[in-house]
């Protein structure tokens, strides 16, 4: 089945100075503009941990973990009863944190699970300023070596894409849950270059830049591509009113999974969905 073009939405207002730099760099040279866009694309925003996540943050065992394949260090969070053998791996999205899925984590603890989460490179308390999805994937695979085995993996947004790609690369879990997951890499690049007011050709230039730098094919990391190699049961959750990632992404991923259930919510957007009681109960029912 060929990939579908997915309708893109713009949710974040880009600061004016970014748009000015983007325009000036494109007038100087396409190489400079591409380099600027690549730096911007790989630089997450480190948000201060909100009060609602402090309980999980304070009660977690936090450790530094070196990821040898990418030569980066991350912070991990072990949350719940250490004697519990039913472990769940939680993976946040872009500009997120290891405590962002705290409401899901709390309900998992109430049902006899323990969780391990992490601040991805350049996120939260982890070192660095830039990162890319490959770093998420390598972090997941190293965490499995150090903390696994895991029964379930749950990922939000870029974390959802990373979970599917990690399963494709050998992460051994019985079930997976992806929430508001991105899908086609080229669509994501097109949306990004559109937001910073660069001409459409720059999405391909950006793709070429990353492929040359990392010696990979970017489309290989698209969620629907990874989904075709995933045989375990997967719960796909997406909201109709998600203005960061269109619901068509979740639907498209679901169609390429061999064994999946699709839940489409309404009115929760991209982030409120993580704390919705009905959504969390759906997750509990699915993994139990």
TrEMBL record:
Pfam families, per the entry: Abhydrolase_1 (PF00561), Abhydrolase_4 (PF08386)
Nuclease keyword on record: no
Residue ranges of every copy of the AB hydrolase-1 domain listed in the record: 88-181
Keyword list, A-Z: Hydrolase
Domain Peptidase S33 tripeptidyl aminopeptidase-like C-terminal: 227-283
GO molecular function, one term: hydrolase activity
Origin superkingdom: Bacteria
This protein's name: Alpha/beta hydrolase
PANTHER family in UniProt: AB HYDROLASE-1 DOMAIN-CONTAINING PROTEIN (PTHR43433:SF5), HYDROLASE, ALPHA/BETA FOLD FAMILY PROTEIN (PTHR43433)
């Amino acid at each position: 089945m060929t990939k579908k073009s997915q309708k893109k939405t713009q949710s974040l207002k880009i600061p004016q100075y970014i748009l000015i730099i983007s325009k000036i760099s494109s007038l100087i040279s396409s190489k400079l503009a591409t380099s600027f866009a690549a730096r911007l694309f790989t630089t997450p925003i480190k948000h201060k941990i909100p009060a609602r996540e402090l309980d999980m943050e304070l009660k977690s065992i936090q450790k530094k973990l070196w990821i040898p394949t990418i030569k980066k260090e991350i912070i991990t969070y072990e949350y719940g009863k250490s004697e519990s053998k039913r472990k769940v791996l939680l993976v946040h999205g872009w500009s997120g944190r290891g405590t962002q899925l705290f409401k899901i984590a709390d309900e998992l603890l109430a049902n006899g699970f323990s969780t391990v989460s992490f601040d991805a490179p350049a996120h939260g308390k982890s070192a660095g300023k830039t990162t890319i999805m490959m770093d998420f994937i390598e972090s997941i695979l190293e965490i499995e070596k150090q903390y696994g085995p895991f029964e379930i993996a749950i990922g939000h947004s870029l974390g959802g894409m990373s979970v599917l790609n990690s399963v494709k690369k050998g992460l051994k879990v019985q079930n997976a849950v992806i929430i508001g997951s991105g899908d086609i890499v080229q669509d994501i690049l097109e949306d990004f270059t559109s937001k910073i007011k660069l001409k459409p050709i720059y999405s391909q230039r950006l793709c070429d830049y990353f492929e040359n730098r990392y010696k990979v094919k970017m489309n290989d990391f698209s969620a629907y591509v990874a989904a075709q190699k995933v045989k375990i049961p997967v719960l796909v959750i997406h909201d109709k009113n998600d203005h960061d990632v269109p619901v068509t992404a979740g639907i498209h991923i679901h169609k390429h999974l061999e064994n999946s259930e699709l839940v489409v919510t309404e009115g929760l957007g991209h982030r409120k969905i993580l704390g919705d009681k009905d959504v969390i109960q759906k997750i509990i029912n699915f993994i139990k």
